[in-house]
Amino acid sequence: MTEVLPDDLVLVAVMTDPRDLEIARVLGWYRIPVASAPKTVRVDWIAFYLTSAFGDEKWSIRYLARVRGHELVRRGELLRDEPDHLRAGEPYFKIQLGPLVQLPAPIPSRQWRRFTFLYTTGERLARAREIKDLRVPSSETRDRLWRLLRERGAKA
Fold it and tell me: What is the pTM assigned to this prediction?
């Protein structure tokens, strides 16, 4: 496994459908609608927060993948078995992923949380024992996170 470095930028994304986890595992990509995308998708890693659709794995982060790149495509190009989907013509980011990696220990949410995306650092991810530990509380760490985001945004 490639190691997550302390200054790596990590995007935590909510995954609502087990099919999407299988696509990430087998096909090596994840989709994000442009309309609801975070400020930048130029991150080093993406970690997946699993919802109640995942049964016993629900409300936790258990998997992550290195981000290898991204491209802009229509939803219908990604999911060819859904040509009549309401959003088939809408633009999506197709995030190309390295192999899916299972964390040594899941990062659970001790209480229900509502979010779509959040940024954190490799250091915060490595030390997290629950989802709230991913937040960036101190001004020094927050400044480092904003620096990482600004650098990625400038390259987009």
Answer: 0.85
pLDDT in tens, 109-149: 987 667 889 999 999 999 999 999 998 776 666 677 777 77
SS3 assignment, position 87: coil
CATH topology of domain 9-155: 2.30.130
DSSP for 78-143, please give it.
H-TT-TT-TTTTSEEEEEEE---EEEEEEEE-SS----SEEEEEHHHHHH-SSGGGGS--SHHHHH
**Which residue ranges make up each domain of the chain?**
9-155
Report d(CA 85, CA 153) in Å as an integer. 31
